[in-house]
Amino acid sequence: MTSPYSTVISPNDHMWETGQPWYFEVGLSALECIRRALKTADVTPTSILDLPCGHGRVCRMLRMAFPDAHLTVSDVDRDGVDFCAQEFQADPLYSREDVREVHTSRSFDVIWCGSLLTHLDRDRWAPFLDFFAEHLRPGGVLVFTTHGRRSIQWLVEGLCGYGLNREEQRRLLEGYVTQGFGFVAPSNQAFGLSLSSTAFVCAQVERRRSLGLIGLHEAGWYDHQDVSACVKLVVPYLDAASCTIPDEVPASPTSRVAPRPDRPLGNLDEPLRDVAAAGRLRLSGWAGDYRGIREVRVRLNGEVVAVAALNGERPDVSAIYPEFCHGTDRHGWRIRIELTSPGIHRLSVEAVNIDGASAEIGTRVVTVPGV
User: Fold this and answer.
1) Cα 53 to Cα 50: distance, rounded to the nearest angstrom
2) pLDDT tens, 177-232?
3) In angstroms, rounded to a whole number, what is the distance separating the alpha carbons of residues 316 and 255?
4) Going by DSSP bridges, is the β-strand pair 279-288/47-50 parallel, antiparallel, or unpaired?
5) Which letter does DSSP use for residue 212 in this model?
6) How many CA atoms lie less than 13 Å away from 159 in the CB half-sphere?
7) Element (H, E) at 62
8) Is 65 helix (H, G, I), strand (E, B) or coil?
């Protein structure tokens, strides 16, 4: 039976030499990690970077799963890059020990970084994470792996020593326990070995305003390495040092406004004010009517772009407007819309009652920056 993925192995593939029994399973597990992140971010990849690609343990799976995607392979091992480029129809990108010396004009929907940070000391993480953030397309996904608590378990139970002697293992664990990060550089190996806590990994992501963490799966890659997934934000998070807390809070009815018998009542609570945003924007609020609410419509420049039902409990609304209850406190609504066109847009929300009568319950000006 023909395999759906290439089974051609480079004679220089040390991953094959040391792990033939599970070589292809590890590659398939990586693909599952990537697919899970793509589903969360709702991304269909057209361009992919595999760094480090080695001799194609994961790259062959990416080519199988995304046959029409533009694939770029990168590694400090030029033989591995050349093999992958030829065997898996990929563009070569030779990496360097200092990734800041690597230059490419391409950007990617997906970047897979498997078992790289697992071998780097903490001061070498930042250049790679910055490189990945810079070369992700807005909305694109970065998936990278680290050694965490599963690796510690294996070390302590003697299941895997990672080629380290007892003293090196002790120093590695000591760094993790005291600082959340441990690293050793064995004299008998070409690469070091790192252990990183989930708190340390999350802190590295949080320092990059353009990256949003969308998943962290401990031992997610073949029941071994932790898997972190990030999305490139179209509008980066604010610099926390410059943030101020607004005096206003999301609107909640604290006094009764006499409802009209011929139209619904409600409010757009979120966003609180006019906003600059792109990608997914979350909206929420409440609505009520004597007869009941059929739906809440979101319009962008007059066009309906989303419809929501009342699905959130709002006892605060029931307390002010008991005539809206109809046996339930479900007056809240929440929905996300996609903002893709740069420019200034008028966003409006209207509530529609059972009879089809509607009323505008909130408006905002939304500015979508150019990408």
Assistant:
1) 5
2) 999 999 999 987 878 999 999 999 999 999 998 999 999 999 999 999 999 999 99
3) 11
4) unpaired
5) E
6) 8
7) helix 59-65
8) helix
| 3-class SS letters over 291-338 | CCEEEEEEEECCEEEEEECCCEECHHHHHHCHHHCCCCCEEEEEEEEE
Burial letters 214-223, b for 16+ CB under 10 A, else e? bbbeebbbbe
Q: Which amino acid is at 19?
A: G
| 14-148+197-232 is classed CATH 3.30.70.100 | no
| CA gap 236, 371 in Å, rounded | 12
Q: Measured at the alpha carbon of residue 103, what is the angle toward residues 97 and 106, in degrees to the nearest 5?
A: 125
- Per CATH, is 265-368 categorized as 2.60.40.650? yes
* pTM attached to this predicted model: 0.72
Asked if omega into 52 is within 30° of 0 (cis), the reply is yes
Beta bridge partners of 336: 282
Tokens of 202: 């999350």
Is there a contact between 180 and 111 (Cβ–Cβ < 8 Å)? no
Find, among 248, 66, 227, 72, the residue nearest to 150 by Cα: 227
Q: What is the pLDDT of residues 70-95, one digit of tens each?
A: 999 999 999 999 999 999 999 999 99
Nearest to 221, CA basis, from 26, 70, 363: 26
| CA separation for the pair 116, 251 (Å, rounded) | 47
The rounded Cα 306 to chain-centroid distance in angstroms is: 23
